[in-house]
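Hi R.,

Here's the chain you asked about this morning:
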Amino acid sequence: MTDQPTPLFHLAFPVSNLEETLTFYRDVLGCDTGRSSDHWIDFDFWGHQVVAHLSPEEAGKSSMNDVDGHAVPAKHFGLILEWEQWEELAERLENEGIDFIIEPYVRFEGKPGEQATMFFKDPSGNALEFKAFRNKDQIFAT
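And here is the predicted structure, written out as C-alpha cells:
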C-alpha cells in the first residue's frame, strides 16, 4: 500500500421519481445535494458522489442471492460506516419506519468478516446496504 489518499467513488444509479429520491436521500439519509437538472441530482453520500438519474424503466431491478441465510439483492450499494455511525443510522431508519429488506443485525458472528449490516430500498426500489466492522482489519477476511 502507498501513502496515497483513499480515492472517492462516484456512482450513478437509475430512479423512477426525482422528487421522491430527493426527499429520501436528503431528508431520511441526511445527504446534502449538489448540482441537479430535470433529469438527475448529485448527492454527497458521506463524502462520495452518487448521482440519481431519472430512468424509470431501469430503476429497482435486481435478482437475489442467499448470503448467511438471507435473500440479498445482487445489485445494491452502500457504505461501511464506523460502528457507532451504523448504530445511529439503524436507529434513525427504524424511527423513520423504513421497511427493511434485512433488518439490522450482526452477521458472520464469531467468524472472519463479522459485521453489522442492514438492507433497505430507496423509493425507486434500489437496494442499499450499510455495514460496519468492529475490526476494520476484517473487511477482507476470508
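One quick note: The two ends are 19 Å apart (CA to CA).

Cheers,
M.
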